[in-house]
Amino acid sequence: MPKIIIFIFTVLFTSTSFAAWEQPELGYQLSKIAKPVPAPNFRLEDMDENKYDFSEYRGQVVLLNFWASWCPPCKREMPSMERVYQNHQGDDFTVLAINQMENDDLIFNFTGELDVQPTFDILLDTDSKVSLAYGVRGLPTTYLIDKKGHIRYRAVGGREFDHPEVEKIIEALMKE
After folding, report:
1. Best exposed site among 56, 74, 80, 144 by fewest CB in 10 Å?
2. What is the pLDDT of residues 138-148, one digit of tens each?
3. pLDDT, position 83
4. Are 107 and 99 in contact, with CB atoms under 8 Å apart?
């Protein structure tokens, strides 16, 4: 009997169907907010203790992403966040990635394991007050915020942020 159980586990955990289940494709759909609401203001620090006040991003479209290093979809979507950030350098667009309750060393190690180093700002929500203000219920959660500071779109779960459909939304918000 134990050999059968070992065989079943071996087949399950090495099969491509299990691997596909473990790593579902990232989506690209964003949920439009029917009645845009003001994005809560916040003040957070990055790993170098630089302070960031969200109100300073008025006039820009902001992709605001809540994440943690233990979250597989968070890791998988980071490269697309970097690509969309690079695609719009110099435009009225930025990416802010807000880490949930992790220390500098853990975040530094996490970003060091990525294929592409993020150049967008990574902020620390050490007590989760910002995620609570935004109503984050799961990670990753992302908001697209317009130039006036209103939440216009939301996504829960991993996304390909440089997908053409997402790029269209970002570009439309930048034109407003």
Report:
1. 56
2. 999 999 999 99
3. 97
4. yes
Sign, Cα dihedral of 163, 165, 170, 171: positive
Q: Which two tokens stand for residue 32?
A: 């439009």
Write the DSSP string, 79-92.
Answer: HHHHHHHHHTTTSS
Q: Give 66 or 12, the one with higher predicted confidence.
A: 66
User: Quick one: tokens of 90?
Assistant: 């110099």
CA distance linking residue 85 with residue 29, whole number of Å: 18
Q: Identify the structural domains of the chain with CATH numbers, from first to last.
A: 25-175 (3.40.30.10)
